[in-house]
Design brief:
alpha/beta, 8 strands
Length: 316
């Protein structure tokens, strides 16, 4: 037993000694475009913290007018104040958006459309992960309600503005775990059987399928869309899982920072020449493999129809 403990201690010591080199290896791609954004308008959900905040910071640095759309306005204002001071861009604004409540989503969209005449980039960044079973204000299971249905409705409400501002882009944050996800149409809300992990994976698969179907329906409009895996990133997303919090703390020297995690979102929002790849999935600033379920057109079409029905909208 002592020998095993000794070996384990030596291995962990080696890992931590080599952590800077390992982190550099896993840091992933970097958004290389120098595109500037004066006069451009951006909406980012959940940009009060983590990846979204770093995405907002970089887009503000490039001169965009950035809307931080988040539930906690106080945290949003704190983030916006920090970004304004860092980038010397005063056009970083905060508006309340609760993706777990369709009334809040509609109120945000109505206010934004009254305030702005253009929208060039929509980044559906916010999300929840590994939550105990709960429902949104509209009775949806929280993962599918926030991660998929909330952004589905928001995109629907802002789409005409995106079309009128074309060329424009929609970036949907998904995850590598979509590969183990499955859309349980017979139990989409997890009422018969619930697992926080499977519910999260299902919602991330839904993000990829939504992106795929949205791209198909946007052909010829000048609006393109991309799904993104940001990587394994230090963020508040794991706060609902004690085990993940412990693992993130233990392996924190090896996971991406929020700034590194924002690079693929920035790439898909800014990189020139991505239009032919609309609807595709990206990781580390390049196109990546998706699971067979994520390439299933019938599943994507069915999810689209079911989402419209649940939200009470018509979106052809």
């Amino acid at each position: 037993m002592m020998a095993i403990l000794g070996l384990l201690t030596s291995f962990l010591s080696f890992l931590y000694m080599t952590a800077p080199f390992i982190r550099k290896f896993f840091a992933g791609g970097v958004c290389k475009t120098n595109l500037q954004l004066p006069g451009k308008v951006v909406v980012i959900t959940g940009a009060n913290t983590g990846i979204g905040k770093e995405t907002a910071r970089e887009l503000a640095r490039r001169g965009a007018r950035v809307y931080i759309a988040c539930r906690d306005v106080l945290k949003g204002e704190s983030a916006a104040s920090e970004i304004r001071a860092d980038t010397k861009n005063s056009q970083v604004l905060v508006r309340r958006l609760d993706l777990s409540d369709t009334k809040s989503i509609r109120a945000f969209a109505q206010g934004f459309l009254a305030e702005e005449k253009q929208l060039h980039i929509l980044i559906n960044n916010a999300g929840v992960m590994m939550c105990p079973y709960s429902k949104t204000a509209d009775g949806f299971e929280t993962h599918i309600g926030v991660n998929h249905l909330g952004h589905f409705l928001l995109t629907h409400l802002l789409l005409e503005q995106l079309k009128e501002s074309a060329p424009a882009r929609v970036v949907n944050l998904s995850s590598l775990v979509h590969i183990v996800g499955k859309i349980h149409f017979h139990d989409l809300q997890g009422e018969k059987r619930y697992s926080p992990a499977f519910a999260y994976c299902q919602s991330k698969l839904a993000n990829v399928l939504f992106t795929r179907e949205l791209a198909k329906r946007l052909q010829g409009t000048g609006v393109t869309t991309y799904a993104v895996h940001p990587g394994v990133v230090r963020s508040e997303l794991v706060r609902h899982s004690f085990l993940l919090c412990l693992l993130w703390r233990l392996f924190s020297p090896f996971v991406k920072s929020a700034r590194e995690g924002a690079q693929t979102s920035l790439h898909c929002a800014l990189a020139e020449g991505l239009e032919p790849l609309s609807g595709k999935y990206f990781s580390d600033c390049k196109r990546a493999w998706v699971s067979p379920r994520a390439r299933n057109n019938k599943t994507a079409e069915r999810l689209w129809d079911v989402s419209c029905e649940l939200l009470g909208i018509q979106w052809k």
